[in-house]
Amino acid sequence: MTFSIHGQAVARGIAMGRATLLAPSRVDVAHYFVAPEQIPGELQRLQAARGAVAAELQRLQGELPKDAPAELAALLDVHLMLLQDQPFDDGVRQWIQERRYNAEWALTTQLELVVRQFEEMEDEYLRERKADLEQVIERVLRHLKGAATPVTAAPPPPRAQAAPPQAQEQQNVPLVLVAHDLSPADMLQFKKSVFAGFVTDVGGKTSHTAIVARSMDIPAVVGARSASQLVQQDDWVIIDGDAGVVIVDPSPIILADYAFKQRQGELERSRLGRLRTTPSVTLDGQKIELLANIEQPGDTQAALAVSAVGVGLFRSEFLFMGRAGQLPDEEEQYRAYRAAVEGMQGLPVTIRTVDVGADKPLDDRYDAAHLNPALGLRAIRWSLAEPAMFLTQLRAILRAAAHGKVQLLLPMLAHLGEIRQTLDWIDKARSQLDDRAQVHGPVALGAMIEVPAAALNLPLFLRHFDFLSIGTNDLIQYTLAIDRADESVAHLYDQLHPAVLHLVADTIAQARAAGKGVTVCGEMAGDPALTRLLLGFGLRSFSMHPSQILAVKQEILRADIGKLTEWARQVLASDEPQKLLLQAAAAR
Ligand code: PEP
Ligand code: MG
User: Fold this and answer.
1) How many angstroms is it from 522 CA to the middle of ligand 2?
2) What number does the ligand 1 atom closest to the CA of 211 have?
3) How confident is the model over 353-378, as pLDDT tens digits?
4) Spatial contact of 317 and 354, defined as CB atoms under 8 Å apart
5) Nearest protein CA to atom 4 of ligand 1, as residue
6) Max CA-CA distance within the chain?
7) Residue 215 CB burial class (10 angstroms; 0-12, 13-18, ≥19)
8) Where are the beta strands (DSSP E) in 112-180?
9) Are the CB atoms for 407 and 467 separated by under 8 Å?
10) Pocket of ligand 1, beta carbon within 6 A
11) Residue closest by Cα to atom 10 of ligand 1
12) Residue 294: enclosing H or E segment and its boundaries?
């Protein structure tokens, strides 16, 4: 039966395919496909972890004091029995052999399947075994974590081989990913795979899951509430990334309708592709800088493919996440930054120092330790609290600057004290490199304006920095007190709220008046519906995911800034800016 689920539209386009479910897990597990030749090794890894847990449980049994309650011994028996349950084990092995899931992914998928069965049981005793099974599997997952195989990110198996009988008529059917949530680390992993689109239960328009979806340039819907409960493995799913709708088990008529829309989208894309080499200049001859946001050095290829004139934001934190606390050392970071610099072939690269925290936790332990992560020890606050880590990163960036034009960008600054400390650490990193006689290069220094306190105190920032970069994602979050990752308040996350527009317009105006560079690198920069408004505010430098550059360029080519300035002033003075934007769009 066809049904639809509504969420947040975050990455454009239509995707159709069979659902691959990613079960939630209390342990932060990696998800990747293993290559066919790795399957025996993966099965062995699973076996070894199960064996270790069995030994652990037996040891606990042996060490039980004589006066321990009888229930405790019985519970350990139940855990051992569940661990050795043959049908469960068969299921896990099947996920590894047929779908080529890594052992952790196979375990959580099978767990989810069995837990659902338990939940449907009448017998209360059996229903309660669900928690026991979860605990046992958690133990196995923790063992596996200590014995992880290197992630190779093999492509998923062809569907004819992997699909259940009812799907076998479909050769090479695209896969769409359905999950409760995706960690940024998982997202990067899947970036190398071939999912046609994805859906998550949680997340807002500018959550990092949504941001990485845009960088992958695949249709995505986040905040689709209970999608991961309602969609079943192998269900046919349509993801409408424009409307934020997920259609499950669509009828042939609906499928045909969406196939048509998909083709239209592809045509539009190829039409936009022709703008690749067109200079980014408005009708009245103003040159506009279009820069790329990247997460990994390899993303520079996509940036060059759309003729970005540099990287306006390299989110370096993606090098740090999902590594179970093992931070990248100076050499690893230097190689990554250098690869990005060289990848841009002489064009400037803005490297932002690590911005972990909030919805970009370092790992699952970090998450659990913070009461309100968005207001907690994130971004520059974490860097200043971990000077050895910060100095390591600064040295790596300064060394990479010897290979090309590098700008150093600092996230989430708000206080003079933070600015002073940050500048001191940068000097210190330079002098450490001098002491080592290690080559390093000059860097322009920039501050992210993403906390209202910074946007309301711009002269301080303009005195200390060479350029500003407006992080609208956080600026909106902190101005409106709306968690950007929380779908339950996503309707209040308003990029056109007059307060937000005033802060953005003011930052642009003050930076320009001071003769300093100013870029918008938040998601507003990549939204073609806002291009004219930002041009009217005086913005001449936009940084966004490569996938958005051509659509924004199209708006620039049609814009006449002479006419936009007064209109932007009216929008800024209005209580209902949205209305004015809609009127202007309708009049075109
Ligand atoms: C922003 O806040 O707008 C920004 C660009 O930084 P991030 O999205 O990585 O927090
Ligand atoms: Mg930010």
Assistant:
1) 7
2) 8
3) 999 887 777 765 555 566 788 999 99
4) yes
5) 471
6) 88
7) buried
8) 175-179
9) yes
10) 211, 313, 315, 355, 450, 471-474, 521-522
11) 474
12) strand 289-294
With CA atoms as reference, report the closest residue to 117 among 22, 30, 232, 20. Answer: 232
Surface-to-core class of residue 471, CB atoms within 10 Å of its CB (0-12 exposed, 13-18 middle, 19+ buried): buried
Read off the pLDDT band of 164 (50, 70, 90). Answer: very low
CA distance 374 to 478: 9
If you take atom 3 of ligand 1, which residue's CA is the nearest one? 471
145 neighbors 103 (Cβ within 8 angstroms): no
Q: Average pLDDT, whole number, for the chain?
A: 89
Q: Where does residue 82 rank: exposed (0-12), middle (13-18), buried (19+ CB within 10 A)? A: middle
- pLDDT for the residue 214: 82
CA distances from 414 to 21, 106, 135, 355, 448 (A): 41, 44, 43, 14, 10
Among all bound ligands, the one having the nearest atom to the CA of 293 is: 1
User: How far are the Cα atoms of 58, 84, 181, 542 from residue 62, in angstroms, in the given order?
Assistant: 6, 18, 40, 65
φ, ψ of residue 253 to 5 degrees: the values are -65, -45
Cross-strand partners of 221? 9, 199
| Cα gap 189→180, rounded to integer Å | 17
User: In angstroms, rounded to a whole number, what is the distance separating the alpha carbons of residues 425 and 66?
Assistant: 59
* Residues whose CB falls within 8 Å of the CB of residue 455, separated by 6 or more in sequence, listed in order: 449, 470, 475, 503, 504, 506, 507
Distance in Å, CA 522 to ligand 1 centroid: 5
Quick: pLDDT tens for 284-330: 999 999 999 999 999 999 999 999 999 999 999 999 987 777 899 99
DSSP secondary structure string for all residues of 70-95: HHHHHHHHHHHHHHT-HHHHHHHHHH
pLDDT tens profile 225-254: 889 989 988 899 999 999 999 999 999 999
Structure tokens at 329: 């050392």
Which of 207, 450, 479 to mutate for ligand 1's pocket (most ligand atoms within 8 Å of CB)? 450
Closest ligand 1 atom to the C-alpha of 477?
Answer: 2
Angle (CA) 56 58 59, round 5°: 65
Q: Rounded to whole angstroms, how far apart are CA atoms 60 and 54?
A: 10
Is the Cβ–Cβ distance between 249 and 17 less than 8 Å?
no
Please give the C-alpha separations between residue 70 and each of 62, 74, 429, in angstroms, as whole numbers. 13, 6, 61
The Å distance, Cα 249 to ligand 1 centre, comes to 36
User: What does the pLDDT read at residue 76?
Assistant: 83
Neighbours of ion ligand 2 (CB under 5 A): 450, 471, 474
